[in-house]
Amino acid sequence: MAEPRSTLETQTPPAAEAFYRPGVAFDEMYARDGGVRNHYGVMHDRLTTLSAEDLAARQSTLERSFLLQGITFTVYGAEATTERIIPTDLIPRIIPSQEWDKVEAGLTQRLRALNMFLADIYGEQKILIDGLLPRELVLGAPSYRREMQHLHVPHKAYANVCGSDLIRQEDGQFAVLEDNLRVPSGVSYMLANRDASRRTFPGSFRAASVRPVERYPDLLLATLKSMAEEWRPDPQVVVLTPGVYNSAYYEHAYLARLMGVPLVEGRDLVIHENMVYMRMTTGLQRVDVIYRRVDDDYIDPLTFRRDSSLGVGGLFNAYRAGNVMICNAPGTGVADDKAVYAYVPEIIRYYLGEDAILPNIETFLCREPAQLSHVLDNLDKLVVKAVGASGGYGMLVGPHASRKEREDFAAALRADPANYIAQPTIQLSTAPCLIDGKVETRHVDLRPFILSGEKIVVTPGALTRVALRRGSLVVNSSQGGGSKDTWILAANTENQPEPEGASA
Amino acid sequence: MMLARVADSLYWVGRYVERAEHVSRLADVMLNATLDRSNAANQTARIALGALGDTVTASEQSLYDAARVLTLDLDDANSVRMTVASARENARQVRDQITTEMWERLNLLYLRVTGDAAGRAFDRGSSAFLHEVIADLHLFKGAADSTMSHGEGWRFLVLGMHIERAQLVARLLKAAFGEGDLGGNDHVTLMNVLRMGCALEPYLRTYTAEIEPRHILDFLLFGEEFPRSIRFSTARIEEHMAEIASHVAFAGRARPERLAGRLKARLEFTDLEELESTGAGALLTSVMGDCSRIHEAIYQTFVAYPLEMRLPA
Q1: In a domain, B313, yes or no
Q2: In chain B, what residues touch A69 (CB-CB under 8 Å)?
Q3: What is the mean pLDDT of residues B15-33?
Q4: Residue among A257, A281, A284 whose CB faces B312 most closely
Q5: By CA distance, what is B250's nearest residue in A?
């Protein structure tokens, strides 16, 4: 198949009334020559017909709707508590069909290989015996769970829900920046953003023929059920939340509501003779599958962290006894570790005998002395990340850091090199966003969601995260990032070969 | 069948919503009474504040402050602001169990009474502010009635409302007539008592404009059709309690549905003559006590039950 040409093709010569000039980074809407890319044609036309006031009014309608729905986090102040919405941009990001097909194939391949990797690591460890990865890099990772060794996981589906972070490089190709196999969040924003963008741009939505994301909750439920159907017909699924003070609580409640299953907290669960029950008004009811939104460390104070009050003591023993499924499985973090990440293309080749469809970003492992000295010499050009950290914490963006910050980080690097990796500073692609009533361009990434149970399913949609500060490359919501809807276009039916026997 | 914690939260949503409405109404009636230059203002304030367990204050200026505190105080767990916040917090804990229509209405009200603008809105027009709060609470109850399945969760919600309502009305009547002094209040004050019970118009349709303490007592205690009478509430408590309890294999001592049945029977078989000989205070006190016992028994039976009794065989 040819490269996804449609992304690079433009519909029109440089627009006279362009909203902005694309910079060094790949822009999702404008090509290098300033023309509008084909798949953005409808949206670009619509934006040119709307006044600044129209746009601002639509943005405020959207924000009010999020506030009303409670898609918020709470700021506790002295006088009053304030509800803030997660910043949301109303201009959807658009991805053409062919390009998505490649992303979907790449994500499916990647998760299949990572699940096989997990089954191997928690099984015979052939990949370590064959010396593909350093043994201590895997078995010494804090996210490795010895307790998982030799446990049967149905369908070898360890990471039932995966949210991978993709970025578009300067040449327009998607690459994987990070795999999230622990408790990835954000899918409720994908669905809420979709709901909002349909109402904001109904005409363009129809005209663009966007693939639907609305099946995510029932696909998630089917995935979760498939983990227990071997031994329990029609298993009871629950969502386990740390509680109402967790910043992702909205999402936990949202998914429970849309799946129609109970939302439980640790205090609702009781373990009796290695079975898990929930406390109902009428007594105890058996639980078969727990979609847990609580980190490994906190799910069972008897097995993992003893100071945790979020989980339930004895849960892991019930899991080990095969009486309950915990999804995602404990210990999946060993496959999304930032150091293991560097080996994923080889992991794919090892288990599947295929080349990775989606490339990695070049990664330097500071645990290797030669790579460490390269990193130290090029700190001003690199992004350095702590292996165990996430959410944009413990991270140095070299080109944007002060000399002092770089020196401090260099000291930390020398003190504990194995804890760091480095990558070149990547210009994430940019996309049109509404900033103070004007269409401007901001850096974005892409987080699609992949489900794996009996089979692997990629929902045709994603959360596009936006770095709202001009020029910033950090999209994490804890660091001033926002999000927007992502329209994956349906295949253009006019270009499809007609089925045999079909009449015109 | 539902999670015990969820049932508990829905029950508390019902209680807090009812309490918020009652306190709003009392604050509104009290403020409205201060506009009249009669003794009724002080009598009304004495009853309103007494019904909420507050001490009686004197001047009109301090009555405005008292109403403002009742509505907006952050330190008073029973202020309108804090009860709405508590209702919403409980609703958030069971967000997956209630409908979007209910949630959005309650969340909107929460944003209205807890936001920075709440104090200014109250000072600009306390009556309009309180009316909107009450109207929002009615919309919430309407949404609960017309969008949520009338199953176990809904019954816990309604149970909470009626237990709260029976106790609040009992306390209001006790503050107004509990001293056995049925003649001490003037006509305007008696009208205000009916207003505080949200009962003025239905009362007038039953008894005409002849407003007498014994009729008020009769109406708010024994009225069979009026939804804010204690008899009406105790009948609903018994109805929902019996339905919920029918699904539980009991092992405990506390039998909330029996307590509810006994309370309902007492309200059905006591009449005004009997009450006039013994005084209303004793009956009102026992209603409040029974409601507390039912409340406790619900918690022990459905929420914090001892696990040993419910372990699978």
Answers
A1: no
A2: 100, 103-104, 107
A3: 96
A4: A284
A5: A282
For chain A, which domains are there?
229-323 (3.40.50.11290), 364-424 (3.30.1490.270)
State the best of A82, A257, A281 to mutate against chain B, taking most chain B CBs within 10 Å: A281
Contact B152 A264 (CB under 8 A): no
Taking residues A263-287, report their average pLDDT.
95
Q: Determine the straight-line distance between the first and last CA of chain A, rounded to whole angstroms.
A: 27
Can you give the residue range of the structural domain that contains B133? Answer: 4-304
Q: A192 and chain B: CB distance < 8 Å anywhere?
A: no
- In chain B, the residue whose alpha carbon lies closest to the alpha carbon of A66 is B104
A34-38, A217-221, B170-174, B178-182: the lowest-pLDDT one: B178-182
Helices (H), A321-458: 338-341, 344-352, 369-377, 403-415
| Least confident stretch, A226-240, A304-318, A368-382 | A304-318
Question: Is A300 in CB contact (< 8 Å) with chain B?
Answer: no
pLDDT recorded at residue A391: 58
Collect all residues of chain A within an 8 Å Cβ-Cβ radius of residue B307. Answer: 270, 279, 284
Taking residues A363-368, report their average pLDDT: 90
Burial B6-36 (b: 16+ CB within 10 A, else e): bbbbbbbbbbbbbbbbbbbbbbbbbbbbbee
Q: What is the pLDDT of residue B250?
A: 62
Q: Tell me, what's the ipTM?
A: 0.88
The rounded distance, in Å, linking the Cα atoms of A220 and A218 is 5
Average pLDDT, integer, range A86-109 = 95
Amino acid A503: pLDDT: 39
> What whole-number percentage of chain A has pLDDT above 90?
68
Write the DSSP string, A135-163: HHHHHTSTT--GGGTT---GGG---SEEE
Does B202 map to a domain? yes
A272 touches chain B (CB under 8 A): yes
Among residues A68, A143, A185, A486, which one has the least CA distance to residue A329? A143
Q: Distance between the two ends of chain B, CA-based, in angstroms? A: 19
User: In terms of pLDDT, which residue wins out, A299 or B220?
Assistant: B220
User: Does the distance separating the beta carbons of A83 and B93 come in below 8 Å?
Assistant: no
Give residue ranges of B with CB < 8 Å to any A CB: 1-7, 74, 85, 89, 92-96, 100, 103-104, 107-108, 111, 114-116, 118, 152, 244, 247-249, 302-303, 307, 310-312
Q: Do A281 and B302 touch (CB under 8 A)?
A: yes
Give the burial class of A298: count Cβ atoms within 10 A of its Cβ; 0-12 exposed, 13-18 middle, 19 or more buried: middle
Q: How many domains does chain B have?
A: 1
pLDDT at A311: 84
Cβ-defined contacts of A52-55 (< 8 Å, 24+): A52/A437, A52/A438, A53/A437, A55/A90, A55/A434, A55/A437, A55/A439
Residue-wise pLDDT tens digits, A251-262: 999 999 999 999
B312 assigned to some structural domain: no
Within 8 A of B74 by CB-CB distance, chain A residues are 79-80
Which of A70, A264, A272 is nearest residue B311 as measured by Cβ atoms? A272
Q: What is the mean pLDDT of residues B85-99?
A: 94
**Burial group, residue A189, by CB count within 10 angstroms (0-12, 13-18, 19+):** buried
Q: Which residue in A254, A263, A282 is closest to B248 by CB distance?
A: A282
Does residue B112 fall inside a structural domain? yes
Take residue A434 and report the two structure tokens written for it: 């509404």
Q: How confident is the model at residue B279 (pLDDT cuts 50, 70, 90)?
A: confident
pLDDT in tens, A136-160: 999 998 899 999 999 999 999 999 9
State residue A129 phi and psi, 5-degree precision: -60, -40
Instruction: Verify whether the Cβ–Cβ distance B310 to A284 is below 8 Å.
Output: yes
Looking at residue A79, its pLDDT comes to 57
Record the pTM. 0.90
